[in-house]
Amino acid sequence: MPDESGQLWSGGSGGGADRRVGTRLNGAPGPMGPFAPGAGPDFASTPAEKKAAANTIETELQPNTKKATEHADEATGAAGKGFDGWETAIGLKTVADTWDQQVKTLMGRLAGEKTALRGASSLITGNDTGVGDQLRTAASGSKLNGL
To answer: Which spans does this entry mark as compositional bias, Low complexity (predicted)?
Structure first.
């Protein structure tokens, strides 16, 4: 089947059947509308939803991650003591150190996401206010210049 340019595109493993190849820009309406299914052109969440997500990170994810880490450290430490003098104890220590580093990275990421969520609403509002001020200044300046 020819495309818009009149070229034929044949399907490779499709048994020789012709296939149409095209391009669609991100955000352009497709079979299910613009953007992701169920999403619209507005922000994905409200300021209240961002605040709730930040609170969930603070009150659930961070403390529960810390508790799980402490539990894993205790269990791994006890197992390591049981294998004292064996290579397994050294392996458990290596795994525990790697785990602790990964948890540290995760906790840092959670803290960063929490801060970003809490700052996003004020940043967007501040940007909107700033652009509005610039537009008002430009509009009053053009009136002064006779435009």
So the answer is: 27-41
